[in-house]
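All the exercises in this workshop are built on plain-text protein records. A record pairs a protein's sequence with a compact description of its fold. The structure tokens are whole numbers drawn from a learned vocabulary of backbone shapes. Once this layout is familiar, the rest of the handout is easier to follow. An example says more than a description, so a record of this kind follows.
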Amino acid sequence: MAGKMVEFPSNGTKTAGYLASPASGKGPGVLVIQEWWGLVRHVKNVADRFAAEGFTALAPDLYHGQTAAEPDEAGKLFMALNIAQAEKDLRGAAKYLAGQSSTAKLGVVGFCMGGQLALFAATLNPSIGACVNFYGVHPNVKPDYAKLNCPVLGLFAEKDQFVSPPIAKGVDAAIKKAGQQSEIHIYPGVDHAFFNDERADVYNKQAADDAWRRTLAFFRKHLK
């Protein structure tokens, strides 16, 4: 791991996160938001990959120290997520990251639960200038797209049982209806979580590599 654990203020309390910085010391800031497993090694690796590409990446620990290895356990943490606390954590993370970023505008990217939270974060923080949503889902997180201040890139899977193509297209349409910029890409023949290279059952290298390329290009375009 190239990064380190840090703490940042979160509306009167403190929240931990994993911070990965580029060799230059400071790059455009990107918030990396966890899947339902928690702040696990895969999420930290994604932050490290952003740092290797010249970004400063912060992955906030929205479960406050808890992680899951089994789907049942992850599902319980996922449903128990305190949305009000998550909102404070995301605001605190964005404020902290702004101090580490070389650009005024930040990016946010999230996976599964984190994809929905990335959209949510983008409606809470005017400092966010680009949002990438990887197959985002959470029944209790309802972003107000009218409050979006940035373009959105949605990356979805054709065989996703949680976020089916019609649902993905519905999110895209809702963002556009709110007068915001949105583009989506639905990868044929792949499953939910196709980007997670630690899950051999669903990982798809070709789709993951293409999604990574699109994500980097999107942030480089919008985080100036």
Summary: The chain is about 35% helix and 20% strand. Residues 205-222 form the longest helix (18 residues). The chain has a mean pLDDT of 96. The chain has one domain: 4-222.
